[in-house]
Design brief:
five-stranded antiparallel beta sheet; Jelly Rolls; about 300 residues; mainly beta
Length: about 300
């Protein structure tokens, strides 16, 4: 009887002791080097890996103190100043099928007079103005603006006479010269010539990307953006002039670097000016003179 009672008590004590062990919380490893070993992890023991910080939903991260960094909002990337100036675009002229100048433009020719121009030879510009059109007078020579410009956007239109005679550089030749840098104006409709001298080229330097010329007798137009050069103390180019040209709505010069002033023969030299008068050329070829209209410029 006593033996049975002792066996029962022993079994009960074993059950109580086992339950007590299972209820103990897990022991934290002793403080010290990684892995919880007082003297550092044994050779070859795996190192404790750091806990990856979870990213926030919008790019923020949780800080070491457990707080999340401020989250990005749409307002953080929205700016309200400085406000660009308001410019009223030009209105469409249905009669001439073109657009007028924007409100902040300097009008260089509006079809009535040559007040903004002068002769390169001195005195008044001697070209012919009639019916809203400016026609080259080859005997009077080149004309240029009275003002100088640095960076600018410019628009002008020209027309090669219908039935014009000649070929290549001897047919409808003119040009816009920005100081010494020439953007070629030439009859480009069924008129082969050397491609770095064709219509839309930086003369003798850059071949245009396309030839969107219209037939003789129709108006063509240029939209041109020019960035003036800068110079170092030695008078050398620090940054060269650059030009973008859209011809009849087609990009033909895409932010092209101009290597120097225009030379008919030889390597283009450096022009140490950063502001320029703009020149329209009265070329000496024997073909009929071309005409211009709707000339305006925006200083940038």
């Amino acid at each position: 009887m006593k033996k049975n009672i002792l066996l029962a008590v022993s079994a009960a004590l074993i059950m109580i002791f086992s339950g007590s062990l299972m209820a103990q919380p897990p022991q934290t490893p002793p403080q010290g080097r990684p892995g919880g070993f007082p003297g550092g992890a044994p050779q070859g023991a795996p190192q404790q890996q750091g806990v990856r910080t979870p990213p926030s939903r919008l790019g923020g991260t949780q800080q070491p103190n457990g707080q999340e960094a401020p989250r990005m909002t749409a307002e953080m990337t929205e700016f309200y100043d400085p406000e660009p100036p308001v410019v009223t675009p030009g209105s469409f002229d249905a009669k001439n099928q073109n657009w007028g100048a924007p409100s902040d433009a300097i009008i260089l020719f509006d079809g009535t007079n040559l007040d903004e121009w002068e002769s390169v030879r001195g005195g008044e510009a001697g070209w012919d103005v009639a019916n809203g059109v400016l026609t080259v007078n080859k005997r009077a020579g080149d004309i240029r603006t009275k003002r100088e410009f640095g960076d600018f956007q410019m628009h002008f239109e020209w027309c090669v006479p219908e039935g014009i005679q000649g070929s290549g550089q001897s047919r409808g030749n003119s040009g816009l010269k920005i100081g010494g840098y020439e953007i070629q104006v030439l009859d480009g409709y069924n008129n082969p010539t050397y491609v770095n001298g064709m219509v839309g080229s930086v003369y003798k330097q850059t071949i245009p990307l396309a030839n969107p010329s219209r037939p003789n007798g129709e108006w063509q137009y240029y939209d041109l953006i020019f960035t003036a050069p800068t110079f170092n103390k030695l008078g050398q180019y620090k940054t060269k002039p650059r030009v973008t040209l859209i011809y009849n709505g087609v990009l033909v010069l895409n932010d092209v670097e101009i290597i120097g002033t225009t030379s008919y023969i030889g390597i283009p030299p450096v022009d140490q000016n950063s502001t320029f008068k703009l020149l329209l050329q009265a070329h000496g070829d024997p073909s009929e003179p071309i005409s211009f209209r709707n000339i305006w410029i925006r200083e940038l």
